[in-house]
Specification:
The protein is of the alpha/beta class. The protein folds into three domains: about 1-55, Orthogonal Bundle (434 Repressor (Amino-terminal Domain)), CATH 1.10.260; about 70-170 and about 300-330, 3-Layer(aba) Sandwich (Rossmann fold), CATH 3.40.50; about 170-300 and about 330-345, Rossmann fold (3-Layer(aba) Sandwich). Helices cover about 45% and strands about 15% of the residues. The chain contains 14 helices and twelve strands. Strand 3, helix 8 and strand 4 form a beta-alpha-beta unit. The longest helix is centred in the C-terminal third of the chain and has 18 residues, at about 300-320. The protein is elongated and about 85 Å long.
């Protein structure tokens, strides 16, 4: 027994050691003992043995036999980002309930890394892909889907392509947040975003601009690079809000820009909402705990995670060609950082 523990066992080894057929061992390990009328005594004997020796099935070999690994590849922008971390947790929970496990990784918005990770998923023979795409991998994702892979995009999509997706209604979410500030009496509303052609960022910018245009108000836009370190981003935001002296409110287009924005406002010697009203994307716990509490655009991540898994499992089960294009509304959570102008301290 001690010798067997030191080597990687196969079904052949187990069958030989117990003096039963390989097929019997295979049926038991694949949960088909009852179906194949294998006795409870034999089943328990095999299960006890594999537990004692720490047997782990060769998932790759099993995938060749069954055509499935019951693994889903999840590619996010950054698992360190609270939004993506919470989403990954919920997706993992929903996948596990349906017999799947999640293999996830971060692209850091790097196209070359994203391509390498797609190849890694292919080498691991994952059954399906949930991808938050970076710029520059549109062709790679389309080739993956054209080759028969079950793929669904999240957070951002490729307009016009026949790839399933679940996204936020970024245009209307930002439009409504900007309209909220206008209705509260703010006239000089800034918008801080990242310099990106990704669909979700372009839609957020468009929603902001449309709300201002509808009320004949001036645009104040600041874009910063994605790869800049936090201190540099904070300095850029400080410079922006001090140069644009008329600013009375700011919308931050991502949660990490929102965090940097709060630091920048403090560094600039300004206060919320006395000098600037603030709205941030994603309802982070930090925004709820901040003093004052920060008005946020919350994404329905529970519903998003359920939609992603349900659509992907449907594709895996049926291999149908139906396109699922799901756009979910955001929720504006109004807090003390965006009061009516009349209520601000003088």
């Amino acid at each position: 027994m001690s010798i067997l523990k030191k080597k990687v066992l196969s079904i052949i080894d187990i069958a030989r050691q117990l003096g039963i057929s390989q097929s019997t061992v295979s049926f038991i390990l694949n949960g088909k003992a009852k179906e194949r009328r294998i006795s409870d005594a034999t089943t328990q004997r095999v299960l006890k043995f594999v537990e004692e020796v720490g047997y782990k099935p060769n998932l790759l070999a099993r995938s060749f036999r069954t055509g499935k690994t019951n693994i889903i590849g999840l590619m996010v922008e950054s698992i360190a980002n609270p939004f993506f971390a919470n989403l990954a947790r919920l997706i993992e929970e929903n996948a596990y309930k349906n017999g799947y496990k999640i293999l996830y990784c971060s692209t850091e918005n790097d196209s070359a890394k994203a391509r390498e990770l797609i190849h890694m998923f292919k080498d691991r023979h994952v059954d399906g892909y949930i991808i938050i795409p970076t710029e520059g991998i549109r062709d790679d994702v389309n080739k993956l889907a054209a080759g028969g892979a079950s793929v669904i995009l999240f957070d951002r999509c490729f307009e016009g392509d026949a790839i399933d997706y679940v996204v936020l209604d970024n245009f209307n979410s930002t439009y409504n947040a900007t309209k909220h500030l206008i209705d509260q009496g703010y006239k000089h509303i800034g918008f801080v975003s990242i310099s990106s052609l990704q669909s979700q960022m372009q839609q957020r910018l468009a929603g902001y601009e449309k709300a201002l245009d509808d009320h004949s108000l001036q645009h104040y836009v600041k874009e910063v690079g994605f790869y800049l370190d936090t201190n540099t981003v904070v300095d850029y935001i400080v410079d922006f809000i001090l140069r644009k002296k008329k600013l009375d409110a700011v919308i931050f287009a991502t949660n990490y820009l929102g965090v940097s924005g709060l630091k920048a406002i403090k560094k600039a010697g300004l206060s919320i909402p006395d000098n600037l009203a603030v709205v941030c994307y994603d309802d982070l716990e930090l925004f709820e705990l901040h003093t004052p509490r920060i008005t946020s655009i919350a994404q329905p991540i529970q519903e998003m995670s359920e939609q992603l898994i349900n659509i992907l499992l449907d594709k895996l089960a049926s291999k149908n060609s139906i396109n699922h294009k799901v756009t979910l509304p955001g929720k504006l959570i109004i807090r003390e950082s965006s009061p009516k102008i009349a209520r601000r301290k003088k």
